[in-house]
Design a protein that fits this description.
alpha/beta; Rossmann fold; two-stranded antiparallel sheet; 7 strands
């Protein structure tokens, strides 16, 4: 088994290469992943960030932490970047854990970025910081975003709407609103009826 799951039909290719012919380690080396619930280890914050690039210098770690809007809260902690985060990061808020995960992905700097419901459980202040960090993180990358919160995806080049495992619509945010289909209905519902 080279990946977590193999597809049963069709192909998935990256730069024309079928991923079934690539080892799991090689595939993972070109993908950064930011999940809904980031996995942090009971280690210092600096080590949780440099998990994306083990040979990173402290200067590189601080640089990505600043870009991910994490430096602000890290420097206020009793031991700064040497602060232990607790098992699964319990000493940090959800937004803080998410910013550490974003810094980790920035440090890894892979050409493919996957964001899986990365803002769904955040308050609006944390989401604002994280949306700003995403802009920096997504530069010059292929980005795949899975989201129910449509504000997360409205600026994407291409949005694919799935319903019961099937593609029902695709296009830009503006195009999908103009179609008046499922995406427009979801947008209308989430924004309380104020379409822009």
């Amino acid at each position: 088994m080279r990946r977590s799951y193999d597809i049963t039909s069709g192909t998935i290719t990256i730069d024309g290469q079928d991923i079934r012919k690539v080892t799991q380690d090689d595939l993972r080396s070109v993908v950064s992943y930011v999940p809904q619930e980031p996995i942090l280890f009971h280690r210092p914050i600096s080590e949780n960030i440099n998990y994306g690039k083990p040979d990173a210098t402290i200067e590189e770690i601080i640089d990505v932490a600043k870009k991910a809007h994490a430096n602000e809260f890290i420097t206020k902690l009793p031991q700064g970047y040497d602060t232990l985060v607790g098992e699964r990061g319990v000493k940090l808020s959800g937004g803080e854990r998410q910013r550490v995960a974003i810094a980790r992905a920035m440090l890894k700097d892979s050409p493919i970025l996957m964001l899986d419901e990365a803002t769904s459980s955040l308050d609006s202040v944390s989401e604002h910081y994280i949306q700003d960090a995403f802009k920096e993180l997504m530069k010059d990358k292929t980005v795949i975003v899975v989201a129910h919160r449509l504000s997360t995806i409205q600026k994407m080049d291409r949005i694919i709407v799935l319903d019961r495992g099937r593609i029902v619509e695709q296009g830009t945010h503006k195009e999908l609103l103009e179609k008046g289909g499922m995406y427009a209905n979801l947008w209308n519902h989430q924004t309380g009826g104020f379409l822009t």
